[in-house]
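Thread: Newbie trying to understand structure tokens

Hi all, I'm a second-year student working on a class project, and my supervisor (Dr. K.) asked me to get a predicted structure for one chain before our next meeting. I've only ever worked with sequences, so writing a 3D structure as a token string is new to me. If someone could post the tokens and maybe explain what I'm looking at, I'd be very grateful. Here's the chain:
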Amino acid sequence: MKKFLNWFIRLFTNRRTWVRQIVVASLASTTAWLIGDSLVYKGGLVAAIVCALSIRISLYKSVREGLGQIVGTAIGAGVALLTVHYFSFGPVAIGTTVLLCSVVARGLRLGEVASVNVPVTALIVIGPGISGSTAEHRLLSTLIGAAVAIVFSYFSHANTPAGRTVNQIARLGKRSAELISLMSQGVAAGFTQKQAGSWLAKARLLVEEIPNLRSQAIEARRYAKWSPLAEVDEAESLYIQGVAIEHMVVQVRSMARTLFDSTLDSNRKEIIDKQIAAALSATADAIFEKLQLLQSESFDKQIDNIAKNLRLAADKFTEEIIANADNLPRTQFVRCISLVSHMKIIANSLDESSPALHSVSTPGEPTSVKVIGMSPITRIGKLGQVVQGAIRTFLRR
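---
Reply by user tm_fold:
Sure, no problem. This is what the structure looks like when written as tokens:
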């Protein structure tokens, strides 16, 4: 019985972030119901539903999605109410509502989840028993639910956006270093194609986390621009660190792919494997040292030394490759040189010295995690300018 209780308790203690988010979401929906029911006639249910649909793990995303959902729902429900007025509540009204809301969600560049939320909320607004006053009540309840979601989203996570960015950088960097260390040990012991395939699969999983890291870094940077509780310089620095980790993870995957391809080469010789293992070990150690210094207040010079040592290890590896050039097949020689290139790119990411991190504009938030691509106010403003220009053109004629 005691073991069962410990197991049951660990189910929740090991998932504290998830537990916090669902508790906040339930409290937010309850609050939305209470406020909606007290301010609007029978408005509690609609407010609770909208709140549950809108609340996200961060204040920044909830503000964007809540605003986008309000604008999208207002447009969709407004036209749907006209449809209901002329065709009554039925398949025509439902089809028109879903079609229009989907177009509006696409125009506002809402994410996948929000694109579903907008038509769902609009259908709630024009549900059975609709009348002029009922529609107003439901629209007002929608505003209340979205507003409560925005407020409660601030409490969904224990850390600030910057803190969450640091955690993601540290976690992704640690997993990358552990994978390189595992590859180093495997190469030193004599690795098989199955082992190399496992490394490549793990490296691909690391790359799949890049969109989440980039989204979090962008959130921290944008949050710092309007919140007095965050420092803009710190957020900008974290964003560059996030880009550096992204570049580093891509190199780790390339290393794993290079090792996997080497197992397919029947002419491959093992005379250089120990040197490869030592180079990989030096790379893993450099990443681990960088992560240990992330929380330090003054670590710039130490990071420069870490990157310098890694470049020296890469130069030493290059000399060893050249020394064995006569005994290596050309394909194996090229793969070893590519490993050197990956090491130096990682070194440039560690001390953030590469122009690729600063001089090349990085794409915005990935579509896969985007909540809303452009502010609805900006989008409506541009739409108004287009309409105004069209009217002026028509009048000139």
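A couple of things are worth pointing out once you decode it. The chain has two domains: 12-155, 161-365. The mean pLDDT is 78. Feel free to ask follow-ups in this thread.
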